[in-house]
Structure formats: structure tokens, C-alpha cells
Amino acid sequence: MNTNSNTYTIIYSTILVVVVAGVLALVSSLLKPRQQDNIALEKMQTILRAANLGADANEQADKTAYIKDLYQQHITNSYILNYKGEVIDGEAFNVDLKAQANIIKKIDAAKDEASAEALKASLKLPVFVCTTDNQTLNIFPCYGAGLWGAIWGYISVEDDFATIHGAIFDHESETPGLGAEIAHEKFYGKFAGKRLEKDGAFKSIAIVKGGGQADNVNGVDAISGATITCKALETTIDSWFKEYLPYFNIKKEAVDAGNSPCGDGCCTDSTCTDGTCAGHDADSLNIESTNK
């Protein structure tokens, strides 16, 4: 064959493209399990960081083993809720937060209650229960749209279901030095101790300039020059917590009455008898925890 002909060039190029594509596909296939493991590990670490755990993971000789052991030790339960605050089948860790965010967005935009109810029926809301030496936390995710891309995070709430214990946020493509600062502890550390209620009713966190005064228990100081990102995060947090309100109400009623199933973030073993508290079993409060 004439190596200087157009036919040779086309055949050679075609074979080269096919071979390279095949090699890349093979490499991608071989690396996919490791990529999935890394994604899961990062998610575990993020959930732990929301509870102020695992900050020293990068300093460990075996970071992977450290995070997995810490997650196994402290994330004692996880489950998925429907829009009524009832536990449904499924693995909380595998819930697609982006998909749920799209449903929540449609719910917020629904023109009537019937449309909103139909959308709510497909919601899957994950909860992660974190047990430490002196308290039990419930960790809730949030996911939404920032200025340039997705923003997301996890917020841990103490067992009064009103006090934020910790939070962590991240982003896809917010502006460095401005909106991207939501992923820095200097910002998300401000959420600790803030309240999700006012005068006995739910009130989400307001992220506004000058909102971090000690007497403003519902406010966090916004990032200078990142008004849009901060407002987007505020809206995201509010939208997700509103969907968790039925669950909050169930748990608060149980706590106020002193009746709560064990191991789901509402009581301690010292108050329990035969796996229940004050005669209430898990089914009576729509709680069926999945041990990790």
C-alpha cells in the first residue's frame, strides 16, 4: 500500500483511534471500582466532618482505614425518610442528592397543594445518626444550585432537634476567594451552636452580612463579595430542612414526652428497657434504624 496515499492515512488514523479508544475504555473500566471507593470514602469523611469528627484524617498513616473505622464506630444508624417523616426501604448512603434536590425544587415551584403532594411522594430523605461519647446527633444533607454550579453539604443537629452541632459545605465551581469560601472551616464553623427554631417554631438559618452576632441565634455572617452564593446556600438549607420538618416534629414530640426508641438519636441506653423507652416501640414512632 502506498503510505503516501489518502487511503492509507484514513485507514491508519481509523485504526489508531479505535485502539486508543479501546485502551482508554479498558483503563476506565479497571479504575472504576477504585474511583467509586474514593467517592464513597470522601462522602464518609464529609459526613463525619459535619459532626466535627475526622479532622485529622489527612495526618493518618492509613487515611482510608482511619476514615472507615471512624465511620463504623460513630455512624451507628442510617435510614431513608419519606415526606411524612416515616422510614422507608433503602440505603441512605446511596441516595442521589441531586435527584432529590430536583424534586424539592419542583415542590417549591408547584402551583397547587395537590401537585406538591404528588411530587413529595417520590422524595427520599437520608438521615445519618452519629453517636459520640456524650451525645447523639442526626446528620442531614442539603444540595442545591450555587452561582456557577452545584453546592452541597451536611448539617448535624443535636438531640433537641433545634441546635446545630456542626456543618460542612462544598461546591462544584464557585468563585475562588468568594463563593468558594463556603468550603472553608472559617465559614462553616460559624454554624455550630446556631438554632433552627424561634419562639417555639421552626426557623432556618439566615446567612446575611452581620448576621453572626452572639444574640442572633438564627443567623450566620455571610462572606463578603459572595452574596449570591450565600443566598443560594441559605435557600438550599431552608428547602431541605422544611422537608425534614415532619421527622423533626415526630422526634421532638417523643423527646418532650420522654418516649423514644433506642439507637435512633433520641435517647440513651441508660433510659431504655428491652430496646424501647417508656413503652414505645420503633413502629409506634415510624422508626426502623439500619445498623451500619
How widely separated are the two ends?
Answer: 65 Å
Number of domains: 1
The ordered string of helix (H) and strand (E) elements is HHEEHHEEEEHEEEEHE
Average of pLDDT: 87
Q: Figure out the total of helices.
A: 6
Low-confidence stretches: 261-292
- Gross morphology is elongated
Report the count of strand segments: 11
Structure description:
The chain is of the alpha+beta class and about 290 residues long. The protein has one domain. About 40% of the residues lie in helices and about 20% in strands. It is built from six helices and eleven strands. A hairpin with a 2-residue loop joins strand 7 and strand 8. The protein is elongated. The C terminus is likely disordered.
What labels describe this entry?
292 residues, alpha+beta, 7-stranded antiparallel β-sheet, two-stranded antiparallel sheet, 11 strands
Quick structural gist:
The chain has 292 residues and is of the alpha+beta class. It is built from 6 helices and 11 strands. The termini are far apart.
Element layout with pairings:
Layout: H1 6-50, H2 63-74, E1 75-81, E2 87-88, H3 97-109, H4 113-120, E3 125-131, E4 136-145, E5 150-157, E6 164-171, H5 185-188, E7 197-198, E8 201-202, E9 206-208, E10 219-221, H6 227-257, E11 290-291
Helix pairs in contact: 1-2, 3-4
